[in-house]
Amino acid sequence: MMKFPSQVGRSARNKALRLCIVLTGVLVFVVSLLGLGYALKPTTGEMTTAGFDTIAGKTAGSTSAQVLALGEKYGNGRIPTSELVQVAPERYLTPDAATGFAALAAGLRAAGHDVKINSAYRTLAEQEELVSDLGLLGEGGTAAAVGTSEHGMAISVDLTLNGAALTWMFARAQDSGFSQTVAEEPWHWTWIGID
Ligand SMILES: [Zn+2]
């Protein structure tokens, strides 16, 4: 096919335009991939390994030293029951955490929610059992290494919470000194004290 000069010029312009569109497409694609990669990137620090049920230093450890005083005096999972306060059958917390928990439970009940504690203080032996049942974190399981769980410090509770109760917790638990310290575990609430 014969081409007139004007057509050749247009064809070259079209080619350049097409190349421009392709390059823009590639650029958008690469930027999208980078964005996706960033979105899917596992969160760092205490969110991945050290976070699950553990004392990450940034959670309960960053609050007043008194919160961890008993656990540090005796060691994680080694606190004598005589030093703790029973908050439900076979469920124990430090005296401060127990006082906070009483207020928390009263608030939950007043708002019409049930209060069911599935776990509180855990001894080293109990944490060992949990590790053998659930597997160790970082090895495909969900249990914190023995000696690293916040439960061993007698400051955490695992609660049965429905959606409405969880919403209440996020809005009001802090009033009683409790905070969600492990994002992946909405049932796990820890006494961090009241400022
Ligand atoms: Zn827990």
From TrEMBL:
Coiled-coil segments on the chain, per record: none
Q: Which Gene3D superfamilies match?
A: 3.30.1380.10
Please provide an example of a Pfam family that matches this protein in its UniProt record.
VanY
Sorted alphabetically, which InterPro entries does this protein's record hold?
Answer: VanY-like_core_dom, Zn_M74/Hedgehog-like
Domain named D-alanyl-D-alanine carboxypeptidase-like core is located at: 91-193
Q: What is this protein called?
A: Peptidase M15
